[in-house]
Amino acid sequence: MAVLVQVNFPMEGPWGAEMAEAFRGLAESINEEPGFIWKVWIEDQSAGRSGGIYLFDTREHAEAYVAMHTERLAGFGIAGVEVIYSDVNESLSQVNRATLTAG
Amino acid sequence: MAVLVQVNFPMEGPWGAEMAEAFRGLAESINEEPGFIWKVWIEDQSAGRSGGIYLFDTREHAEAYVAMHTERLAGFGIAGVEVIYSDVNESLSQVNRATLTAG
Known about the structure:
The first copy, chain A, is α+β, with helices and mostly antiparallel strands.
């Protein structure tokens, strides 16, 4: 069953197009992570917050990624990473047009 | 620009297939909400938590939905609803195979 992960943390930028340029290589590397399905990159410049919403195939793969990613964020000087793991109710999500495979 | 909304709250059930049956009509109604794009339904029976990850077309539509939905949850006896609104970095999300349209 797919596992959804909400990752939120404080960030000082970059934002928008500059963020996309700065992290494009990192994003490409995420596609290679075991069990990774998709990620929505989120940002809130006014609140100084960023993060991502991830879908993984299993809880084990999600936890292994988050452990690695939290260390990587620490290397960028980012602490205070908040993580919520959830199961996905696939039946209801399909009613509501969510894509649970790689788009 | 698309707006992602993380909604998390305590819930005592139902879970899984029973949850899908109980909320199917509600899910269908959500498809009719202005600006709604998709929702991933999340659940964590062991933590007694549920919620949803939503994509809306604008912040205004997202806020109007959340105001209505929070009242509806209160009618189910659910309080302690936590909401995070974020912009979506569409360029990075597309690299990571996210679907930003209705699936």
